[in-house]
Amino acid sequence: MCNEYKIIEEFFYRNREQVKNPIIRSFLADAQNLYLVQHAILYPNDCNLKMVDETFQAHYQRVQKIKYISNLIYFFSLDFDKKKRRLQNRFLLVADSGLMDDGIRDEESEEEGLLEKIENEQLFKGLQKLTDKQLQILEMIYVKDYSIKVIAETLKTTPQNISNLHRKALKKLHHIIRKEEI
Amino acid sequence: MQNNMNEEMLIIIENFTPKIKQCLHQTSYQDREDLEQEIKLKIIEKLTMKEFENTPSFWNFFV
Question: Could you give the ipTM of this predicted complex?
Answer without folding.
Answer: 0.82
